[in-house]
């Protein structure tokens, strides 16, 4: 079964902060109609043709999840992994995220699954960047 | 910027339980080499060409997230949304999830964003199914 597109919904504190971080900082592609605050509503980014990221203010997110509680900062239920073509591209992406204000959770290095690193977005959501470069040995 | 594929990593309690739920229950497409326990290692499903779901035993997941804590059941940081072509397809998908053992968190109904419903996987991770059907009015 193929399902397209899948939308990953995450709770956020502030739409403008998230918009700036993902669009200006990470160069993610926003989609949808812009609302009065200059930010698309809902705030979505197309990561590729098969997946979108939707960032929902915490109150609305809490409404969606019913009797569940919204995870507070520092509590992780998911990690989103992005491939990078080379080890150098991992370094460049983490540097870009850092300049955009991300917290670098683990700097780029050799891990059991490859060369990569992890950063947190303005709400503490974790992203990994992992090199697809093949190394001899 | 287009990034493919994005991998959504979630913590799980038991590889076999998750494998059965997603492969046999939801008919998701597993990818990767099968390990001695008969389950791919790592346990991944290709949802479409642009996104994979990776299910990681909680211990390993905790290692990945560093000084963060793994969300316990009932604490939600993310909701994954799947499109369905019609309202009837939403009903059918939720029924399939229910038969596979999912908890139905909110039965299918008309929501501000469309006709849909929400279920929880064996570890409490939330999925929404949302109809793409256009209604007059």
Automatic annotation (TrEMBL), chains A, B:
Occurrences of domain VOC (ranges): 2-132
Single annotated GO MF: lyase activity
Alphabetical UniProt keywords: Lyase
UniProt-listed InterPro entries: Glyas_Bleomycin-R_OHBP_Dase (IPR029068), Glyas_Fos-R_dOase_dom (IPR004360), VOC_core (IPR037523)
SUPFAM superfamilies: Glyoxalase/Bleomycin resistance protein/Dihydroxybiphenyl dioxygenase (SSF54593)
Domain of life: Bacteria
Name of the protein in its database record: Putative lactoylglutathione lyase
Organism of derivation: Cryptosporangium arvum DSM 44712
């Amino acid at each position: 079964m193929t399902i397209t597109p899948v939308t990953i919904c995450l709770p956020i504190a502030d739409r403008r902060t998230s918009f700036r971080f993902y669009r200006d900082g990470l160069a993610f592609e926003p989609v949808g109609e812009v609302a009065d605050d200059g930010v698309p509503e809902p705030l979505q980014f197309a990561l590729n043709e098969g997946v979108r990221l939707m960032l929902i203010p915490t109150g609305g997110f809490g409404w969606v999840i019913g009797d569940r509680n919204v995870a507070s900062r520092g509590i992780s239920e998911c990690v989103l992994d992005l491939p990078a073509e080379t080890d150098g591209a991992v370094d460049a992406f983490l540097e870009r995220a850092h300049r955009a204000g991300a917290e670098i959770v683990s700097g780029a290095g050799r891990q059991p699954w490859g060369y990569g690193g992890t950063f947190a977005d303005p709400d503490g959501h974790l992203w990994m960047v992992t090199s697809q470069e093949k190394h001899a040995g």
